[in-house]
TrEMBL record:
GO terms for cellular component: cell outer membrane. The gene is htrE_2. This is Fimbrial outer membrane usher protein. It comes from Salmonella enterica I. One of its GO terms (biological process) is pilus assembly. It holds the Pfam family Usher. InterPro entries: Fimb_usher. GO terms for molecular function: fimbrial usher porin activity.
């Protein structure tokens, strides 16, 4: 089956050298419920090769079985180099909703 659709992406990045901080924000809009990314398409056509072993904790098949039908996705990332070689501070957030499903997915780390 051949599915068609459109996706739109807007991205913004900003680096503040005074604080060594990098901000990035991205928004994606999938204009139809059947839109598939290239990775979605490859997985759907090879799904029999992604079967769970009994001892698997995480299975890529779980991700793809539940992730089709994305409608909107927003991501925010903040990365900062800490002074005096103290490492890095990183914060990320993701918000996503889906066609034909109520509720949203939110991940903050």
């Amino acid at each position: 089956m051949f599915l068609m659709g459109k996706a739109y992406q807007v991205a913004w990045n900003k680096y503040l050298p005074q604080s060594a901080t990098h901000f990035s924000l991205a928004a994606y809009r999938y204009s139809s419920r059947d839109y598939r990314t290239f990775n979605d398409h490859v997985w759907a056509n090879n799904r029999d090769n992604y079967r769970r072993d009994d001892d698997d904790i995480y299975d890529i098949a779980d991700y793809y079985e539940n992730d089709f039908g994305r409608k909107n996705t927003f991501t925010l990332n903040i990365n900062q180099t800490l002074p005096m070689g103290g490492g890095y501070f990183t914060a990320s957030a993701l918000w996503r909703d889906y066609w034909g499903r109520s509720g949203t997915e939110r991940i903050i780390s």
